[in-house]
Amino acid sequence: MAKKAKFQPPTVQDVQLYINQEGYDVNAAEFVKYYEAGEPPWHDQNGKQVRSWKQKLIAVWARKPKAKKCVKCPKMGTYVSEDDSGHKYWLCEAHKPKPKLAGFPKVEMKSVPGGVNINDERNRQKNELGVR
Asked: In this model, does residue 70 exceed pLDDT 90?
């Protein structure tokens, strides 16, 4: 059985390369400085040796951003949308865009030959999708 390799502390460049590769929003220099400043170096706040700096970066430093308030009401947003200029904003579930029904234009026709109502078919599809 192969012996595990001894922990090699990363350089700021190593960390920055990994952050860029994975798309995290973390300051690489701060991350390395924090763990090198510890006594002994590369131990966490509980005194345990860091065995995987990548795992420590993911679990402790690279947290997902918290939701912001909906731009249309005081509720918390859960959906990020984008306007025509590329500006991103948050929307709550109530203001989240509804899926568009393709291929079924809104027609003000009561019935067609054969007794099929176009609006009834459209409403049936909307009910299946949960759209109101």
From this structure: no
Give the DSSP per-residue string, 62-77. Answer: -PPPPP-B-SSSSSBP
Cis peptide preceding 40, ω within 30 of 0: yes
The reply to whether 16 and 56 lie within a common domain is: yes
Same-domain pairing of 107 and 126: yes
CA torsion angle 4 5 8 13 (round to 10): -100
Q: What is the mean pLDDT of residues 110-115?
A: 56
How far apart (Å, rounded) are the C-alpha atoms in residues 35 and 52? Answer: 12
Say if 1 falls within a structural domain. Answer: no
Task: Give the predicted TM-score (pTM) of the model.
Answer: 0.47
Strand partners of residue 68: none
